[in-house]
Amino acid sequence: MQPLKVKVIDFGISFDDPEEMIGETLQTLCYRSPEILYEDPFSGNIDVWSLGCIAAELSMGTPLFPAKD
Description:
Blueprint: H1 34-37, H2 45-60
């Protein structure tokens, strides 16, 4: 049995240079990681956070962290 592979692809907020990301919205609000909310340094791990939020939403039928602003 092979391990489960998941690909979530969204280039809606993509940048070539990480320096361009300062002060910009980097993730959809419901899936935004703590690093982004607190404006801390971040890595690709923010995508793992978003994937977890998406999986929870698919399982529960409602966003884990519903947000309007």
